[in-house]
Design goal:
single chain; Jelly Rolls; four-stranded antiparallel beta sheet; 10 strands; 32% strand; binds 2-oxoglutaric acid
Length: 158
């Protein structure tokens, strides 16, 4: 779901835009009050059970506003959300406080995201970290993840 012109290319796929549903619009308004950001794009991921997973990546596509947080809401089954430092961080500004070089990097770590949890990934998280949702075969229930993003419409090429 997105405002007109705020589509998002994801995993190489151009998504068809849906208008905001009343429930998603209400969540967006609450997040605006909470974060001060007006999110213009929402991506929904459905994990049918623990066999559905998401590999290591960072949400750093050029159309995403790098100054904006990504707000991630979890519904349904609890799942592990893994974080690791990027093997080679993206250029652009000094490393944030607490960042250590690859040789000293902390091991990947886990956040368990449960029903109703809201994870706010503030900049420069995407520049320095990758995340993943690994397979967990013991999980039999479905999970929905809603990520609210700020997309900058890119100027037309050429
Ligand atoms: O399902 C999640 O918690 C993460 C989703 C994710 O990594 C993404 O949408 O980029």
């Amino acid at each position: 779901m997105a405002d007109p012109g705020c589509g998002y290319r994801y995993s190489g796929l151009e998504n068809v835009l849906e208008p905001w549903s009343p429930a998603a619009e209400q969540l967006r308004r609450q997040l605006e009050v909470f974060t001060g950001w007006r999110f213009n794009s929402l991506l929904l991921n459905r994990y049918r059970d623990g066999r559905d997973a998401m590999g290591w990546h960072a949400d750093d596509e050029p159309e995403l506003d790098p100054a904006a947080p990504i707000a991630s809401l979890s519904l349904g089954a609890s799942r592990d959300f893994r974080l690791r430092q990027r093997p080679s961080p993206r250029a652009g500004g000094p490393p944030p406080a607490g960042y250590v070089s690859a040789s000293e990097a902390c091991a990947p770590f886990n956040l368990e995201l449960a029903h109703g949890d809201l994870l706010l990934m503030e900049p420069p998280t995407q520049q320095w970290w990758q995340h993943a949702v690994p397979r967990r075969l013991r999980v039999q229930r479905q999970r929905l993840n809603l990520t609210f993003r700020v997309v900058r419409p890119l100027p037309a090429a050429g």
